[in-house]
Amino acid sequence: MNLFRAMPSEYLNMLKIEFTTNKKLKHNPLFKQMSESINDILTKRSNIDATITELKTMSPEFIEHINAIVKSMMRFENSHIEHIENRD
To answer: Which backbone phi and psi does 20 adopt, to 5 degrees?
Structure first.
């Protein structure tokens, strides 16, 4: 099913339609599972698109502020790990 992740969404939609509407395929458990996997991938992709759209509406200052917080957290985590490693 990892191969599906590399496919464009348009192609995945075509496959999903074929798997769910073709009388021979839609009752086959393997094709049902593949259709569910495709649906999961498409759902995750649409969630990512929504997140990116939301990010585009945020002010650059807010995004810089969030970046600074994340970087600060990473520095703290790295220094904590170094402290534990040096202690041993």
So the answer is: -95, -15
Task: Give CA–CA dist 48/51, Å, rounded.
Answer: 5
SS3 60: helix
User: Token pair for residue 22?
Assistant: 């073709």
Integer Cα distance of 57 and 13 in angstroms: 28
Judged against a pLDDT cut of 60, whether residue 1 lies above it is answered with: no
Predicted TM-score (pTM) above 0.85: no
Q: Are 1 and 38 in contact, with CB atoms under 8 Å apart?
A: no
Terminal Cα-to-Cα distance of the chain (whole angstroms)? 43
* CA 60 and chain centroid, separation: 23
**Rounded to whole angstroms, how far apart are CA atoms 76 and 21?**
53
